[in-house]
Fold each of these.
Amino acid sequence: MRLLVSLLLLLLVRSAEPRRGQRSRAADKSPAGRVRGRRQFDITARQTQECKEYVEAGEKYLDCQDRQLTSVMQDWPKDIHHLLLASNKIQVLRDNMFSQFTQLKSLDLQQNDISLVEEGAFSGLSQLTTLLLQHNRLKTATEEILLPLPRLAYLRLYDNPWSCHCLLDSLVRLLQVPSNRNLGNYAKCAGPSSLRGQKLKQVNVDSLCDAGKPEKERPKPPPVKEKQQSMCHTYMFPKPLLDCSNKGLSRIPADLPSDIVRMNLSNNSIKHLRPKQFLLSKDLKLLNLSSNSLHHIDTAAFAGLLYLRELDLSNNDLHYFHYGVLEDLYFLRKLSLGGNPWMCDYNIHYLIYWLKHHPGVSYTGLICDEPQEFKGWRVEDYVKTYNGECPKDKQTEGTDTGQGGQGGSDNEVMGTDGEVSGQGANLPRPIQEKPNTFEIIRLS
């Protein structure tokens, strides 16, 4: 009897074990189990998918701009050369925060909420050449944060509320070393009031520890106007670019960087270009001023732009150029002029004259808008019409002006003496068909 009971109990135990195993496996396959197992994976995958990884000129970029990030992710690629973290929500740069990116050459941290940089934040970045920290909330820092960066060549610190006191002493001294000419340009003191508006590169270092002491009364400096450049975005790779497009600017920003190669000022409300506003940007090769409200360009507005190759003035309110406006653009190769209400009268002749003497410049968009009788005409054709109506001296009939041998390009409109090159065959149809209603009598 006892043996029978024991066998029955043994059978019951064995039959129960698979059921418990089936229940546990079923639980693992339940929706709740799947969510728990995937939760960490989904978060990681989502954040890596938000960033864009690409290769340009043989170097790897990781673009994580405007992703609401508060830190870097440990699963990001380690072999990247350029890390773009602009327009996020990073507040503190912790020690060794970027140490895994040992090949990094540029680090873009502009337009975050950074208020603190720990001394070891940039440890391991021995290859870094460009560090962008502008448009943040930094008040103080020491030179120790830059010691791990032996190759640093470009450092942007402007548009931060720098507190010019003793704690900033070592950083200011480092920035003022003559060989560090591209470190900390345009950064200014926000306080105390006695130093407000002074550039860190120029402030008297010996006065930092005395600044703000109540016993030393100093005259209040004039209020510092907010620089419109603070709204612009600086890119250093692949080529230095200052992007000020769609910022609502009504004038050219002051203190333009001197090392910028391309500048985008399109889609703003700039109406007037004054003399020498680009004088410091001597390396500029591309200038985009399209889709503004430009109606007047002063002579010498482009002074200093010796190497400018592309100029976009399309979609503005230009009627003509004053004499001498283009004389500083020795190496210009492309000129965009479309979308302007060009006035076809005597004032437009300077532009055509300049283009004729610079045949290497390709241009587009020179169409008459006014007066109504010439609306839709090419400006070159209008100038031919203007000259075609003038009587010719019989003594010069049949002679060559010296300009016809160049093939009659669009840029060749008139000779040096004002005659039409190419004779009547190149004139617009209205002039070719105009009957002779005059008899010219030359009196000696």
Note: The first strand starts at residue 52 and ends at 56.
Amino acid sequence: MTLPTPPAVSAPPSATPRDGDADRPDRPCVTELRLSAFAVHRGAVLRLAPLTLLAGPSGSGKSSALRAYEALARLGAGAELGAVFPDPGACVPERARPDAQRRRGFRIGCTADGPEGPVRLDLAVQAEPELRVVGERLTADGVVLLETALRDPGRRAVQAAWHTAGASPVTRAPLPDDRLGTALLPLRVAGKTDGQRRVLAAAEQTLVALRSVFACDPRPGRMRDPVPIGSGRLLGGCDNIADVLGRTRAECGRRYARFVAAVRAGCAGPVADVLAEPVAGGAVRALLDRGGGIRTGLARLGDGELRYLALALVLLTGPGVLEVDAPGEVPAALRTLTVLADGLDRGLDARQRAELLRLAAEMCERGHVRLVGTVAEATWAAGLDGVEVVHLGRDTRV
């Protein structure tokens, strides 16, 4: 379960411009997801555009790919391994055989591109007999900036070595085996040498790219009822959408008008407005204003209409409204929100799918939002500019 031996740590390259600098994203973002050994995936490399649809039949690993992405995002935000993987055995490839110590595990990774260039993060996790990190590697331009490995199974720590390029080429220290080492680097690296500053810049780019992630799977059955007035931040299941509508209207009237237009395009019947109305007991409910004094509560809408409405709202809001652990120390103009939408087309009719995808393409083109969604098939998305379709089992590299 340990990672392969890395190449020798080399001195940092000169500060001269590198090839491809002109095409580099201004805001850090994840451009590649690697599923080296995770659930049904082995050796899969998913290249992610601003708007990516993962297509394939049931069992092809679409949902597990999103789970791996979300797991990396939560680890990047500092979550403990056990909270991120409550059922680690389900992440182990089915045919993975235990070693002599009865250990089995899984491997995932990603590439975060941005001002520092492509930075690769790879993680090896032991799932059995106990959950722990056994290896992690952060690299850029072929230089290993951080490497960890489990040296002593009896200790709850991994041995870490990070790039220094000072009097000593690397600094070594133990790190916990239940957290992502990259997320701990800003607290452990002094930043006194060029090498250390390079490590910090690469780690921070990776963490910024990972942390602004919103995993979304609207649950219509929970969207129909009034909800208590709360934080005004939308949950991943969109259960509390009624509580969020009033806030979004007050904060950005122009964007809310765009949301109402999207609802009008995707829902049956006339739609003059989308309202949040207080009800008894300190709760609020959402309804559609049909005009002429007629209002329709969400309880009367179909599942497809509710999923469409919720996904449109997600695309038109941002980290301040969504329940996202965004890096607050980074200005919003330098962050990109990535929406992970499992079953993006679930329950939607042809018109709703087309309208939602057009809205997604428009928002993703602006650069502040990225979308990775799963669909059963993607022929309906063919020909739309800005949409990248990855067919699992065909476009993945094995």
Note: Residues 194-211 form the longest helix (18 residues).
